[in-house]
Design brief:
InterPro entries: DUF641_pln, GIL1-like, GIL1_IRKI_C. About 60% of the residues lie in helices and about 5% in strands. The radius of gyration is 56 Å and the shape is elongated.
Length: about 450
């Protein structure tokens, strides 16, 4: 624009001086002197031309310039709106306010551009020309480039966020893969054991730890049944000390409450009777072990153990009353709750009929007895799956205490007192829970010690 203005001024100056030269030549041709040519001050000078110098008018607005400005404004608004969306997730209040102000500013710029264009009309307009100088286009281009940079930064941040999320997902998948690898190793081990010969597969399952775990569960259920029975005896007015003396005569109990161990012994020894018989028969009419093939005996016993462990004993007694397990329960219950005990325990005052005489769901001992009997039944089947068969033993009364084969049933018993040489070794008062020989491993028998000097 400055260059055009300079060219215009130069042209007008050349024309002005050219006209003056022509006039001087004409005056010299007619012989007019310089002194005559200068008029007096009061004379009117005629024939003189006045030239007014004006710059060329600015060109009208270029449609391409207007379109570029509008596009730059739209691009800037798009970038500001993208920043506004990004600031909402996660929500950053300062960033939201800044992006909102930028978006509003760009909208105002576009609105002003639209207003100026509509007010100018189709032809050139000085107001629009003054409102859209060259610097406006340059500024719009600079802002457009800055907004593009901000868009790229936002895209980079979003891509980095996606990368972090993918890394987290990859870490989770790696952990899942490691877990699957571990599960695959376990399945491979199980498959290897499943492909073993039957004899080797049974040997891998039958360990001392498995038998000891089932035995501990059996002892827990036996204690539960004993507590229920003792509560019924207390409600019936029984003298527990006299009952314990009838079961284990002349035993020196350290505390009066220890008489319950005699009742527990009565239950355990009664339930474990016939444990060393293949069909759990304690009357001497059981099947002889020598008549059974070892592999058949082991496979059959293990199968019965697995099948029975998956059944509910209460449902089994209700749905299969003629099964061997139900016969076992009825026989053991009749042995424990004999008519002498039945006649002195709880009775129905209205009918005079005992609620304990038979193993029926109405008996208060029914559920606890069924659970205990089921656990002892499974333990016996498991014992006969071993080779050699698990042997049961109990300690006779008066035997000196041995920590190898026995453990005291009394909690917190001072074992240092047993091994000290200051007093004679305590004697066994009675066996509470029998012991077992699992191969060459001994599972200790739990006994109550008859010794007035034992400490708790």
């Amino acid at each position: 624009m400055l260059q055009k203005f300079a060219l215009a001024v130069k042209t007008k100056t050349i024309e002005f001086f050219a006209e003056e030269d022509e006039e001087e030549e004409e005056e010299r041709a007619v012989g007019v002197d310089d002194s005559d040519a200068c008029p007096a001050p009061e004379e009117v000078i005629t024939g003189q031309r006045v030239v007014v110098l004006r710059p060329d008018p600015a060109p009208g607005p270029d449609p391409e310039t207007l379109a570029a400005a509008a596009l730059a404004g739209l691009s800037s608004f798009q970038a500001a709106y993208l920043h506004l969306q990004t600031a909402h997730s996660p929500f950053v209040s300062d960033a939201v306010r800044s992006a909102d102000r930028a978006a509003v500013s760009h909208l105002r710029r576009l609105s002003e551009l639209k207003r100026l264009y509509l007010s100018a009309g189709p032809g050139p307009s000085p107001s629009l020309t003054s409102a859209l100088p060259l610097s406006f286009l340059l500024e719009a281009q600079v802002l457009d480039n800055q907004d593009l940079l901000r868009i790229f930064e936002a895209l980079v941040d979003r891509l980095q966020s996606d990368i972090d999320r993918k890394d987290a997902e990859a870490a989770v998948l790696e952990k899942a893969l490691a877990d699957l690898d571990g599960a695959g190793v376990q399945l491979a081990d199980r498959l290897e054991r499943a492909c073993m010969p039957a004899e080797e597969r049974v040997e891998s399952l039958l360990t001392v730890g498995v038998f000891d775990s089932v035995l501990r569960d059996t002892c827990r259920l036996t204690h539960r049944f004993a507590r229920v029975l003792v509560d019924l005896m207390n409600l019936s007015g029984w003298n527990l000390g006299a009952a314990a003396n009838c079961i284990c005569p002349d035993v020196n109990f350290t505390k009066p409450g220890h008489c319950r161990y005699a009742i527990l012994s009565y239950i355990c020894l009664g339930m474990f009777g016939g444990f060393d018989s293949y069909d759990f028969c304690d009357d001497g009419d059981g099947v002889d072990m020598d008549e059974i093939d070892v592999s058949i005996r082991r496979t059959d016993s293990l199968q019965q153990f697995i099948e029975h462990s998956a059944l509910d004993p209460l449902e089994l007694m209700r749905d299969f009353p003629s099964s061997d397990f139900v016969k076992f329960c009825k026989k053991k219950y009749a042995k424990l709750i004999h008519p002498g005990i039945e006649s002195s325990l709880l009775r129905n005052s209205a009918t005079g009929e005992s609620s304990l005489g038979s193993l029926t769901p109405s008996s208060p001992l029914y559920e606890s007895f069924a659970s205990m009997a089921s656990s002892i039944w499974m333990l016996q089947k498991l014992a006969w799956a071993y080779n050699p068969v698990v042997e049961i033993f109990q300690v006779a009364r008066g035997t000196e205490f041995s920590m190898v084969f026995m453990e005291t049933i009394v909690p917190k018993f001072d074992k240092l007192h047993i091994d000290s040489g200051t007093a004679p070794r305590p004697k066994v008062g009675f066996t509470v829970v029998p012991g077992f020989h699992v191969g060459k491993t001994v599972i200790q028998s739990r006994v109550y010690l008859d010794d007035s000097e034992q400490t708790l």
